[in-house]
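Chain A, query sequence.
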Amino acid sequence: MIDEGHIIGNHGMKHASLPKLSDEETREEIMSLHDYVKETYGYEMKYFRPPCGEYSEKALAQVQSCGYKTLVWSFAYCDWNVNDQPDRVQSLERVSGAAHKGAIYLLHSVSETNCQILPEVIDNIRAAGFEFGLPDVSDIIFHFWNFDISSFC
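Chain A, predicted structure.
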């Protein structure tokens, strides 16, 4: 992924909720993965996405003090439960219809539904006039689309 030019971001070593951690625990959660990726792959991550989208002002300050910029998604839906996958037709409509300029999708790779619909989603989004590429992070730092995740589950 790194060799292909993808941005690799930090999501924490244990997927812990940062607002529930002490300052020391937050730093360890972020920097343990940072150090592992840097030592193993020679890649220095710069962007952090809070696990489960949970954050607080204190947590965001801690992320920044670790040298990271926070980047979150603008679209997500309940696709992570392998035993309760969303309907293919509804998911195709929902995911394709969520496209907007600067969109950042959160799609879980464990989702069979996502694997089935992704080629058509990509075609639909391109047909709607959007392009795929690396985010212009100068425009979208701490980009967050207000949505109620419960409406998707």
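The two ends are 30 Å apart (CA to CA). The longest strand covers residues 47-48.
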